[in-house]
Amino acid sequence: MKHDPAVMPRPFPKYLEAEHGIVCRLPTSERFSYFGWPTVERLDDGMLIVGSSGLRSYHVCPFGKTVLNVSRDNGKTWSEPRVIQKSLIDDRDVGLVNLGGNRVLATWFRHDTRTMGRESWIPEGERTTWDATFATWTDAKVNELLGSWTMLSEDGGATWGAPIRAPVSAPHGPIRLRDGRLLYLGRPMGAGVDPIKETTEAWQSADSGRTWQLLGKVPAAQGARIVNNEEPHVLELPDGRLIGMIRFEKCGSDDPALAAGHVHFRMYQTDSSDGGRTWSEPRSLGFHGSPPHLLRHASGLLVLTYGYRQKPYGQRVAFSRDDGRTWEHDWVIRDDAPEGDLGYPSTVELGDGSLFSVYYQKVAKGEKCSLLWSRWNLPAGRR
Q1: Does 168 fall in a domain?
Q2: Comparing C-alpha atoms, which of 164, 279, 168 is closest to residue 218?
Q3: Beta strand pairing call for 290-296 and 18-24
Q4: Which of 127, 150, 218, 345 has the fewest C-beta atoms under 10 angstroms from its C-beta?
């Protein structure tokens, strides 16, 4: 395989020193036991909070709710799932942002699952319940709810304000810049919007997500025929430069990764040196995995966590020691998932410098997806 110059090849696989546990897992006998698309955030007092779309029946269903789990002992034990937001339609993908003190921002989007209500995989009994649920929906009400949303907590997630519409969506939400502003790299959502055809956009907020201003748009990637590009995440470097990662799927035959069979589910990188107003043409990282989550470790190492939906299924990491110019990829957090419905890992650094990642996958074949965690250390020589 011809390697992308931005990718540093290495022997495969290489495992990280890690321990694993469970944030939330309900018996599969419980109908609403599916959890997915989480984000973990560490608050100023050390408390860990995980937001997800939980208490669902399936990966796609009309019943998604915004759910919160809390740990006060660095992730060893977790509270029961608590619903903090539920609309008439499906609520999906939860991002969390520590705004300082006890202030937390949550983000999510709402989806019209009527478009998927006749899929052949839906069990007949489930379909009957769905149809009864859809009968209570109207086009006007659904259109009013569709799109990306935020809400604010002033007390560490104990209580939450009313939902506020946001201009774009991404699984892990916006980031807080060093000057206190929020930067949201995402895709437009809402009634009448086809997010597949929309470009990735950068928006800023100076008032904790109450209002937003467009900064700039990411240009289309050239040299690859992309069917789907979405679910970005962004990182601010100490010098103010921004690194954005975007999930891409179903690339055309002119994508060099086809030679290795990597025909979908990969990441492209775009950079901005003017605060998000202009962005470089996205370039392929050249390896399988997505969607992205970016973190800068206290050591200066950049950490990119992502789901791996090829055998062996699991969660992986790429590292950059040169501020995103090159990436050393496919360090394995774990590769024991029974199938490929998994991923969306997000990662925080704990007080001792170790990393804590939360993601969703099945514990065992035949179960529904749960929220799992891994606590791991940087490889020797990179700490």
Answers
A1: no
A2: 279
A3: unpaired
A4: 127
- Ramachandran class of 209: left when φ > 0, alpha when ψ lies in -120 to 50, beta otherwise: left
How many structural domains does the chain have?
A: 1
Q: Residue 273 burial (CB < 10 Å; 0-12/13-18/19+)?
A: middle
How far apart are the C-alpha atoms of 146 and 226, rounded to whole Å? 25
What letter represents residue 339's amino acid?
E
Give yes or no for a contact between 359 and 41, defined as CB atoms under 8 angstroms apart.
Answer: no
Adjacency order of strands within the sheet including 147-153: 90-100, 103-111, 147-153, 164-166
Task: Provide the greatest CA pair distance for the chain.
Answer: 59
Among 22, 195, 205, which Cα is nearest to 105's?
205
Cα end-to-end span (Å), the chain: 30
Kindly indicate the confidence band of residue 227, based on its pLDDT and cuts at 50, 70 and 90. low
Is the pLDDT assigned to residue 249 strictly greater than 80? no
The tokens for 282 are 């996205």
| Range of the structural domain that residue 330 is part of | 1-30+293-383
Strands (E), 101-222: 103-111, 147-153, 164-166, 168-169, 175-176, 182-188, 201-205, 213-217
User: pLDDT digit string (tens) for 20-60?
Assistant: 999 999 998 999 999 999 999 999 999 999 999 999 999 99
User: Residue holding tokens 């269903």?
Assistant: 61
Torsion of CA 246, 249, 252, 257, to 10 degrees: 80
**For the purposes of burial, counting CB atoms within 10 Å of the CB of 169, is it exposed (0-12), middle (13-18) or buried (19 or more)?**
buried
